[in-house]
Amino acid sequence: MKNGENYNNSRRNFFKIIAASLLVIPFLDACKEKVVTLLIRLSGTNHILGHRLRVKNFPKPIQEISIPYLIVGGGITGLSAARQLTKKGITDFLIVELEDHLGGNSSNGENKYSKYPLGAHYLPLPNLEDKALLQFLEEEKIILGYDSKGFPKFDETQLTFAPDERLFYKNNWQEGVVPKSGNTLLEDKELVRFFKLMDDFRTQKDEQEKYWFMIPLSESSENEALKKLDSVTMKQWFDGNQFTSKPLYNYIDYCCRDDFGLGIEYVSAYAGIHYFAGRKQNASTDKQDTVLTWPEGNSRLAHHLQKYVKGRSLKNHLVFEIKTDKNKAVAKVFDNKTNTTIAITADKILLATPQFVNQYLLENRKDLASNFHYTPWLLATLVVSDLSDNGSFPLCWDNVIYGSKGLGYIYDQQQSLQQVQEKKVITYYYSFSSSDLKRTRKDLYKKPKEYWQKMVFDDLKIAHPNTELLTESIEIHLLGHGMISPVPGFIYGQAKKEASKPIDNTIYFAHSDLSGISIFEEAFHQGINAVNTMLDATTMDS
After folding, report:
1. d(Cα 470, Cα 476) in Å, to the nearest integer?
2. Residue 360 in contact with residue 320, Cβ under 8 Å?
3. How big, in percent rounded to 5, are the helix, strand and coil portions of the chain?
């Protein structure tokens, strides 16, 4: 599940010839009679408390706090903003978070066998042009230095161990996630043509020497012809370029769902192409095929950022109203543990929260928020005694099943230095791509955990027929607003611009949904840029 599939790697894997096909060994029917007692847990974000924003049945404030800077939201954007404030010499701030932990979608769980992600789970190697991110990775000893050509030297233990990805396709596992073994000649030709088009998009620059597609997205070219790609779906682009290959269609659909939640039918062509073209693979040749990952996923990165808010965070606190008052802003904040409300007056407030939340905190924001679309997600972490399959290619970090409803699973212990694992821990991903996300979100919380358990097992059984018999526990994690989904007209539409505008030089906004793409880099830069804008305005005010 990598953002921006590596083309050189894809082409190499695509043209590899599998010399032998292994026979599928049928499982004994007697295994079906085995009785398994399964531990099922259902978790998710605190949507019950969050939904109180709609009715606002909160008590009146009994305490007042004054502080120069208040950050609302403890995800990557909020934590990045806290880091930027600290680097500017400002430590007199407070960060408020609804959950009982910081990190947002970059959070994790842990069982007796392994840590595991509860959302984002890797960071692709950054572009060399992204100096701010490179600096952060240096600070945290993820980058240990640079070689003679200027390429980063990464800590080897934080790069995916081989083998890193495989695809279950035509009843066999194959290396890589691009369908290749058993295609028709026409299907192979279309894959090659598609990769060539994406390579062209990836390397092209405009007259100002800006890349057509870049990360962060704000650094991309403003070429009007490219912007028109935002007015059509990726499927329309696919059809318009006379592609007909089903394996290619399914591959692109998988990539869109993986990074945007919505599939090829709903995502804008600009976003779909950006997935492939935004990353420049600026790494030494032997490192281009990998990503940075950890058992706990991007929670590792969130943990690094949390040092900047030590002693300055309020968790289990819900901001439910913000108003400006005499060049200041007042936030009413509900303490979920004591069931009391406090009023926090700040010179500046940074809302590092998504727009579906902001519509309830500020007046006259609901029409604006209606233009932002968020896809629900489901994650399932399984502890299994074994992960039997036909042995056609070894277990990898990323394991995708062609034709399944979900996005496959990651092997959470891939980075472990322990040679033998008592049990295996895997995390399965599913995005609810649909034309009616509101209805899908409502249905999400109505169904019992047994329903989701069956869905997960049915999907995994395509490649692992006896998975259910070998599973000892399963934790279902639901995310009602998993990520922003860039539908046509959104990335270059007016809603993003309007939602980003500060209010009275007092209330500022930053979140990955304001970029249109929900990846670590966008959230990280949103926090930095918002603080810089906020401090520039402060200087002008004074």
Report:
1. 17
2. yes
3. 35, 25, 40
